Amino acid sequence: MTAPDNRTVLKLALWGMPLSIGVMGLKMLAWWVTGSVALLSDGLESIVNVIAAVIAYVMIGYAAKPADATHPFGHHKAEYFSAVMEGVLIVVAALLIIWEAVPEMMAPSMLDAPALGLAINFGAGVINAAWAYLLIRAGRRHRSPALSADGHHILSDVVTSAGVLVGLLLVLATGYAILDPLLAVVVAGNILWQGWKVISRSIDGLMDRAVPAEEEEAIKQAIADNAGGSLGVHDLKTRQAGPATFVDFHMVVPEAMPVGEAHDICDRIEDAIRAVQPGARIAIHVEPEGEKAHGVRVKTTASRA
């Protein structure tokens, strides 16, 4: 695991704006040359992508601000607000698609210039697929909820585009124009589901969800391997706030242990935790012997610093 790089995250968010505008233009062009409601639904979702890209850039920039007197733990959670807003915008896009599709179901019509429109939309989908892969990968690497949400949203857009292309080929093959608006409604349902997933993941972050189980196990192991000299630790708690991970726990030491020696143990543990959780914010409360130690056992053979 690598340490989050705010400059890389912000740069990707900046590039997201012109790319999303370009893809939106291609999709709306595909709708204009064909008159397809399904392609219009794909284009409407891309409008949301543009708005979401702007919000993500602003929020990622704000989240990167250093801690201050009024926000002593930093501004990391601002990224979750970006993700929540993006989820809401996804839902709005789905409702707009349904609004456009229902009247068309009453009077369906065949497509104009279908080959050109589908080719344009396919090109936009390829660009989106590559960009979604890059954003999701960067979002995981740098622990950026905003980038991850944007990447997953664009990935859902890619799935939507693929479904639209297949559906419109069926329209051309069968001659059933009603399939076009019906497909748009199916697309809207998929977008609603994606929007809910984006919102639910963001709510977890705002509610101070603990780190994933495998990461918590790595933290526990780092503590156990480097807490030699102490009598044990307890009350281990973790939480994530965007790219930041917070770890705190209590460490029990012999009552007669000098403060400097206890401090050395803390330094050793902190270094070990940051080796598995780069950039982690760590708080260790040292307690004298007599406090009950539980939760994470230490290796008594560990050497002292």
TrEMBL record:
The keyword Oxidoreductase does not apply. One of its GO terms (molecular function) is zinc efflux antiporter activity. It is a multi-pass membrane protein. It comes from the Bacteria. Residues 212-289 form the Cation efflux protein cytoplasmic domain. InterPro entries: Cation_efflux, Cation_efflux_CTD, Cation_efflux_CTD_sf, Cation_efflux_TM, Cation_efflux_TMD_sf, CDF_Transporter. The keyword Transmembrane applies. It is found in: Cell membrane. Gene3D superfamilies: Cation efflux protein transmembrane domain, Cation efflux protein, cytoplasmic domain. GO terms for biological process: intracellular zinc ion homeostasis. One of its GO terms (cellular component) is plasma membrane. Pfam families: Cation_efflux, ZT_dimer. Keywords: Cell membrane, Membrane, Transmembrane, Transmembrane helix, Transport. Residues 20-207 form the Cation efflux protein transmembrane domain. The chain crosses the membrane at residues 12-34, 46-64, 84-102, 114-134, 154-176. NCBIfam families: CDF (TIGR01297). Belongs to the cation diffusion facilitator (CDF) transporter (TC 2.A.4) family. This is Protein p34. It comes from Sinorhizobium sojae CCBAU 05684.
